[in-house]
Write a structure and sequence with these properties.
With 487 residues, the chain is an alpha/beta fold. It has two domains: 195 residues, Alpha-Beta Complex (Aspartate Aminotransferase, domain 1), CATH 3.90.1150.10; 274 residues, Type I PLP-dependent aspartate aminotransferase-like (Major domain) (Aspartate Aminotransferase, domain 2, 3-Layer(aba) Sandwich), CATH 3.40.640. 36% of the residues lie in helices and 14% in strands. Bound molecules: pyridoxal-5'-phosphate (PLP).
Length: 487
């Protein structure tokens, strides 16, 4: 396996990539001229009319006005390969023609009814969605965001079990509403206000930073890690910690639920040692709790081997929450559970104005069809594997890459001070990301120390996009290392 990095300078790499991908890169009719407010005007509006907590992602912020499949265009006509998909949300591609056509048709028919009436789209979508769900997971609540989905899942778990306590993992992100700030444990989202009662956070079984290491479901392992066949030996140690946590945090009557992603997204693509989640579910069941799989990032085929991330861990959750990729960018989300659990909710009225909106369901249905018709799950598997292989080659060249991980098109590259596991300074990571953006690729950033490059592109990216991305990363890291001095 060799690194597909070009010897040419970055401008020729960009030129060649743009030329090769031009035939398909434009929306029908070609790239359109920017017609919105001047960049300076957006700066002024941003500082005067938007909350300061919504920070700029880049030093020189991007003003994007057009997208097609895996590409985005800024107000000056520059083209970017989007490797972050609007934060793991653009699943089948920006303005995918089939989704656009379905939405255009529905736009002319009916936008909104509320959930008090029936409309055909909600039935067509739900039928398709439940066909993707295993076991008794056949009852669907349609909501509007991942936060709302998790909030509802908390309620269902409490109602069904009669218990109050909810456990999630350290460094998890499940939303940041006032209630979900209890479930989310990431410090950067913590505010100086009390966290809602009843939530606690168990030790994160992280093969790279965790005290026992471990091996994970990826072709890339932490250097020097174990390589267990079947369950990882460390999973029992982390499970012991989980049991200690449960015993020390919940009453004798038991827990309401444990929430976990099958790969932590916001925390920089942390995968757990093999076998951990399966054993965690068994354990939480012994303490009367439900297991909730947050598939907001890992669902819809992204991990390649399975349609849902939890299937890679051989578990059957009691509740699954999903959002982001479900609508390819159209705001919608869902909670899927069993009839038995949903019946526990039937003690009072429940209402959701927009959940099951005909436009949202049209988007959701078209997305499910495109995933199947274009074999996007398989593409995640094949292209994702190739991506990891290329990143592992880069890791050999640049000791600033401490870890490469993930599966399918859910990948992370953890940047460290060379020769150590100390996280690379946030300002250095920002510099690297600014360079990669200027060279034409958009990456995400995450992890406890904001030092992990997150790669979660629209699931339609191809091998040539990976080659371009790796060339850009190579060039950006080369330039960075020329001037880098550790403190
Ligand atoms: C795993 C996970 N759960 C829940 C959420 C919250 O979703 P939303 O932003 O749609 O409310 C997110 C958002 O990033 C997420 O990554």
């Amino acid at each position: 396996m060799t690194l597909k990095v070009s010897k040419h300078c970055i401008s020729s790499i960009i030129r060649r990539y743009s030329a090769n991908s031009n035939s398909t890169s434009c929306q029908p009719g070609g790239p359109i001229n920017y017609a919105g407010p001047m960049f300076q005007k957006t700066e002024q509006l941003k500082s005067e009319n938007f909350p300061p907590v919504q920070r700029n992602f880049y030093k020189k912020p991007l003003l994007l006005h057009q997208g097609y499949m895996q590409w985005l265009y800024d107000h000056e006509g520059r083209k970017y390969l989007d490797l972050f998909g609007g934060i793991v949300t653009v699943s089948v591609g920006h303005c995918h023609p089939k989704v656009v056509a379905a939405m255009q048709e529905q736009l002319k028919k009916l936008w909104h009814t509320t959930s008090i009436y029936r409309n055909p789209k909600i039935y067509e979508f739900v039928e398709k969605l439940v066909a993707k769900m295993p076991g008794k997971l056949k009852v669907v609540y349609l909501v509007n965001s991942g936060t709302e989905a998790n909030d509802l899942a908390v309620l269902l778990a409490k109602l069904y079990t009669g218990n109050h306590n909810i456990i999630s993992l350290q460094d998890s992100y499940h939303g940041c509403s006032s209630a979900m700030l209890g479930l989310t444990s990431t410090q950067s989202y913590r505010l100086p206000t009390p966290v809602p009662a009843g939530y606690s956070h168990a030790m994160l079984p992280d093969p790279f930073r965790g005290i026992w290491g471990g091996c994970r479901d990826s072709i890339s392992q932490v250097p020097g890690s174990c390589s267990c066949s079947g369950d990882c030996i460390t999973s029992d140690k982390y499970i012991h910690q989980l049991e200690e946590h449960v015993i020390n945090n919940i009453p004798i009557s038991g827990a309401a639920a444990m929430f976990a992603e099958s790969i932590q997204g916001v925390n920089g693509t942390v995968q757990f040692p093999k076998g951990y989640l399966k054993k965690a579910q068994q354990l939480i069941k012994e303490y009367n709790g439900l297991f909730v799989s947050d598939e907001v990032q890992t669902g819809f085929g992204r991990t390649g081997d399975a349609f849902w991330g939890f299937e890679n861990h051989e578990i059957m959750p009691d509740i699954v929450t999903m959002a982001k990729g479900i609508g390819n960018g159209f705001p919608m989300a869902a909670v899927v559970t069993t009839m038995e659990i949903a019946e526990a909710h039937n003690k009072a009225a429940y209402f959701n104005t927009f959940g099951g909106n005909p436009l949202a369901c049209t988007a959701g249905k078209a997305v499910l069809e495109v995933i199947d018709e274009e074999n996007l799950q398989e593409n995640c598997k094949v292209t994702g594997k190739y991506f990891v292989e290329q990143l592992m080659q880069l890791q050999k060249v640049y000791p600033v890459i401490g870890d490469v991980r993930g599966k399918g098109l859910m990948l992370g590259v953890e940047l460290v001070v060379p020769g150590t596991k100390d996280p690379l300074n946030a300002s250095d990571v920002v510099d690297i990301m600014e360079k990669t953006k200027d060279f034409g690729i958009l990456l995400g950033r995450g992890g406890r120390y904001s030092n992990v490059l997150r790669i979660k592109p629209p699931m339609c990216i191809k091998k040539e996009d990976v080659d371009f991305a790796v060339s850009v990363l190579d060039q950006a890291l080369k330039e960075f290392m020329k001037t880098y001095k550790s403190d």
